[in-house]
Amino acid sequence: MSQQRAFLSRVSSSSLGLFRESRNWARRERGEVEEEEEIDGGGRDGALEVPGEEEEEGGRWERMPPELIGEIVQRVEAGGERWPLRKDVVSCACLCRRWREVTRGIVRPPLETGKITFPSSLKEPGPADIPIQCFIKRNKKNSTFYLYLGLTQTFMDKGKFLLAARRFRHGARTEYIISLDVDGLSQGSNAYVGKLRSNFLGTNFRIYDSQPPHSGAKASSSRASRRFASKQISPQVPAGNFEVGQVSYKFNLLKSRGPRRMHCTLECPVGNSEEDSPKPKAHSGGVPLVLRNKAPRWHEHLQCWCLNFHGRVTVASVKNFQLVATADASQPPGVGDEETVLLQFGKFGDDLFTMDYRQPLSAFQAFAICLTSFGTKFACE
């Protein structure tokens, strides 16, 4: 209820008028007032009453006409271009089931809008034209990594928290648990969304999603793949560990000069069209997406390898990379070409890294790929 109260206190005055109309309508439906009776906004200073905690979910908000709910949500959606104002859109979906259905029908996916709104947006592809700009904070003390959505074009904002990951050692292997909650970094947590597992040398990684990438997908047969209560992303499907990608680093046995060389194979989500349902679909049965790191050029004056990060990376590091699609006509449609950067990652401060991604990658997949870059790889450098 506190989230509802916070939302109602932020609703614009024009939307309050619509709320008053709806309350009058609901009262007339219950026979509490006559059709002609005029009712004011109610409450002190005309503020709209907030349903008490004793009211059921199917209360006054549930009984509002869907057309009126849609009008309110559209106004809130139009006024919340970026976070933190976008909290109002989420609050609309939290009022009750009917509001949630209407809100999800109005709010378009990141592929169309470039906006991250709900937790499910983290597993939907980003926009095709302009990448979504994020950044990662690293805490070396507890081997934890935090993904934030950039709120401005500078490196000064605090950002909107999206995902967290923690690195664990299992013998000679490394595993990263990815979660929606900084306090739920375990596979048994409701906030668990996936994981990353390395080989003995730390040169090959497998990406696991807590949800199936397509219908008919089978969970990993490993002992750690038992089902968990991961309900935040999509409660309609079972949770488990489904392999959705691999990342490998090429051996550099001759110790030749140059950055690390990466190769990624992914199953990517497919964006929704206007006629589709708001739920994300998945790339099923087709050719997986193949990415490789963009080759840098040697700068004679600086005597180093260079890539153009367009001001988003300011510190030279072996971890910096840009990924492009391989030149293959069988690739999924809309991936771009060998010059279109689909994911770039690089350092801009102490334990601070940028992460910019676009279609067909999702925030979850981009974050998992970037996590593979952390850690020393003696066989590759």
From TrEMBL:
A Pfam family the protein falls into: Tub
Domain (Tubby C-terminal) ranges: 122-376
Stretches that traverse the bilayer: none
Residue span of region Disordered: 24-60
Source species, domain of life: Eukaryota
Entry coiled-coil feature ranges: none
Family, per entry: Belongs to the TUB family.
Record protein name field: Tubby-like F-box protein
Species the sequence originates in: Musa acuminata subsp. malaccensis
